[in-house]
């Protein structure tokens, strides 16, 4: 009889310790109000987005890289769809303000072996309501090169594409903050 009572008390304690813990866990997961940034960016940008990249005359090849990064961000990060201008809820006009490469690390002979690409973008956001906002963002990307060599076009384009993606990630963060403040 004594053993059965001890088992009952032990089971009773387990249930009353596990049950509140389970409720707390469920509350934290579902009830804390977490929303992904795509919810807030959709609130600001809408579902249908038109994108345009202005060509940088010093380096016109970069416009293609930035356009690809922008379209990828709209589809994968904004969870929006690309549409012609007349059907769009909002319009994003991106222009390249500049690209620079800075040495980060040198080898023992003084040759640069690590660079940082810095891309600066100016993004004009226009809503269907007539609201216009201008944001400037920059992104960077670190990459190695062989000692005593120059940056190849392949490395250069990859660095510009990746730093543009990081700049667009900063833009997404800024837009989601605007969406959060409006809600």
Q: Any overview of this molecule?
A:
The chain is of the alpha/beta class and 183 residues long. It has helices at residues 2-30, 37-45, 61-77, 153-182, and strands spanning 48-54, 81-82, 90-106, 112-127, 132-144. It has a 5-stranded mixed sheet. Helix 3 (61-77) links the parallel strand 1 (48-54) and strand 2 (81-82). Helix 2 (37-45) packs across helix 4 (153-182) and helix 3 packs across helix 4 (153-182). The longest helix has 30 residues, at 153-182. The chain is flat and about 85 Å long.
Characteristics:
single chain, 183 residues, alpha/beta, five-stranded mixed β-sheet, 4 helices, 5 strands, 46% helix
Helix content: 40-55%
Distance between the termini: 61 Å
The fraction of residues assigned to DSSP E strands is 25-35%
Tell me, what's the shape? flat
Low-confidence stretches: none
Can you give the mean pLDDT?
Answer: 84
Order of strands side by side in the largest beta sheet?
Answer: 2-1-3-4-5
Question: How would you briefly describe this protein structure?
Answer:
46% of the residues lie in helices and 30% in strands.
Q: SSE layout and pairings?
A:
Layout: H1 2-30, H2 37-45, E1 48-54, H3 61-77, E2 81-82, E3 90-106, E4 112-127, E5 132-144, H4 153-182
Helix pairs in contact: 2-4, 3-4
